[in-house]
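Supplementary Methods, section 5.1.

A reviewer requested that the exact input to the structure prediction be made available. We therefore reproduce it here, unchanged from the version used in the analyses.
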Amino acid sequence: MNTHQQHISVKAQQGFTLIELIITLVIAGILLSIGIPSFNSFLKNNQLTTQINELVTSINLTRSEAIKRGFSSTICKSDTRTSCGGNWTDGWIVFEDQDGQGDVDAGVDTVIRVYDELQAGNTLTFGAKNRITYSSQGIAVGFNDTFKLCDNRGATKAKGIVISNTGRARLAIDSNADGTVEDGSSTNITCP
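The structure derived from this sequence is encoded token-by-token as follows.
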């Protein structure tokens, strides 16, 4: 093998130079510093959307079960999974509420569905309301308020469910385009 062929063979086996390696690491660092916050924001937005959809589903389930069973049905905050109490962040239950009083009567009422506590440190509040009770006609008079679902980013990223005076649930919207959704009285929601 002549010297020229030997030189080419050695050059092909050298790999990256130190400068090439540093440039590659700097570019990778820049891309990660841009991409990770966007990815974290994507994950938090997805978590809020999933949780608010689960809440809407449970409210709709409560109403439909009241109509189907011919008895009142209630959704209430529950930290025990068997009775009402605690706070909404700890979870909630949907149950057949035959007397319409908003508490689970042992041996009489049936718990229909149990919802676990919220994940990722998110909070759920519903004003001073502990429950929503739907009559057998699917109406929940007097439970109008707004569910507020928040994460650590505050009110500008929060989601809400507005409950009308008849018990109809709708997604809170940002009607004035200021970056924060509004409650049922068109006031920006706040987070704890």
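The two ends are 77 Å apart (CA to CA). These observations are discussed further in the main text.
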